[in-house]
Amino acid sequence: MTDQTTSTRRRASFHRLTVSNVRRLTKDSIEVTFAIPEELSAEYDYVAGQYVALRKEIPNAEGELQELRRSYSICAEPTGSEIKVAIKRDLGGLFSTWANENLTAGDQMDVMSPAGAFISKHRLTEINDPSKIDTEAQDRFVAVAAGSGITPVLAIARTILAANENTRFDLIYANKAAMDVMFLEELADLKDRYPSRLALHHVLSREQRISPLLSGRIDSEKLSTLLDTVVQAPNVDEWFLCGPFELVQLVRDQLTGMDIPAEKVRFELFSTGEPSKPQGHIGRPVKVEEDEDSYEISFTLDGLQGEVKSPVRANETVLNAALRVRPDVPFACAGGVCGTCRAKVTSGTVTMAENYALEPDEVEAGYVLTCQSHPTTEKLSVDFDA
Fold first, then answer.
1. Which of 43, 90, 144, 151 has a C-alpha 20 to 30 A away from that of 385?
2. Model pTM greater than 0.70?
């Protein structure tokens, strides 16, 4: 396996892959397996917890082909020969609905090389380099997930539990009902394999369970009890939070209130909780008039320089402007969540509207999410290769 830091911040690139299997998980979710050709195995080496972006042209309501990009977490530990993702149908989601209704084995799709920093900071994920695995530490890990947030958490749990027989892993997993639980059999199998080291806490909001603590929505009071008595938060070495914005933020706030160091908490969002924000567009049209006030944006991508003018009145993002002259500029969610469009500001300044993907040290070093960044100086330069 490549070095962990290199794996998480590799230059994103798409390759056409073939679907080898589609498996129904629940009535509204599927697991999709992509076969990795031997010559591309290095491109799809990854660390448990990372994601890939899928790109496909799909007919819209008018029957016209529309390019869509969506990011999905990898749900299996690394093997080198395949990648598996889970796609849950979202209400009104064009891509997820199409995939759940139409995707079959033999179909082809553009799949981006793995990316993302939702990974363990412990040396437990270098499964192809045993010398780097800490087999002595007795660490405790806790994950809080909801719905399809289980996808990366499952890969992380499998990898961590297999790497070190001294570790413990607790999973608090929230769903509406038992029939909505993704990877139910896989979680049960994992529990059977590690009965003393894996604890599963299924919380169902619309079904009554024996324990009132595991019934109903996870609110502040219930979460406090779970953190205090079930997982004993002060004794946890690393946290993984994945799901909708409201739940992830609730847990982060509670942990902050318990003086849990922020560096122990990894989190990933599937959305910002603001559906009105653009997701996965390919750049809105902007016409530049000859004499109007404009920002001058230059960028480096794959070692090549690009330049584009962005009218002040348009209030467009750096990503949107760059896409008008280079359609291959990397992006996936366009909502500040995935981090695919990350670049380093080399001159000038920007204001970044949202950031759910970059670590504080990255922001301090000058990195921004171009999908959320607007120029604030007349001239701006960013480097996608940095």
1. 151
2. yes
Contact 296, 380 (CB under 8 A): yes
Q: How far apart are CA 155 and CA 51, in angstroms?
A: 11
Domains 4-112 and 130-269 equal at CATH topology level: no
Angle at 103 between CA 98 and CA 104, to 5 degrees: 165
Reduced to 3 states, what is the DSSP secondary structure of residue 38?
helix
d(C-alpha 102, C-alpha 216), whole Å: 34
- 379, 347 Cβ separation under 8 angstroms: yes
CATH 3.40.50.80 matches 130-269: yes
Rounded to the nearest 10°, the torsion over CA 108, 97, 93, 10 is -30
CA atoms within 13 A of residue 333's CA, in its CB half-sphere: 28
End-to-end CA distance of the chain: 22
CA distance 338 to 42: 22
Average pLDDT for runs of 10 along the chain of length 386: 45 90 96 96 92 91 86 89 94 90 96 90 52 61 96 94 92 95 96 97 92 92 94 94 94 96 90 47 70 94 94 93 91 86 96 90 94 96 94
Helix (H) or strand (E) segment spanning residue 29:
strand 29-35
The three-state secondary structure class of 30 is: strand
Q: How do the domains of the chain map onto residue ranges?
A: 4-112, 130-269, 294-383
190 phi-psi bin (left φ>0, alpha ψ -120 to 50, beta other): alpha
Q: What would the CATH number be for the domain defined by 4-112? A: 2.40.30.10
Give pLDDT, residue 3.
43
What does the alpha-carbon distance between residue 177 and residue 202 come to, in Å, rounded to a whole number? 10
CATH of 294-383 among 3.10.20.30, 3.90.960.10, 1.20.1440.20, 3.40.50.2000: 3.10.20.30
The total of other beta-carbon atoms located within 10 Å of residue 97's CB is 16
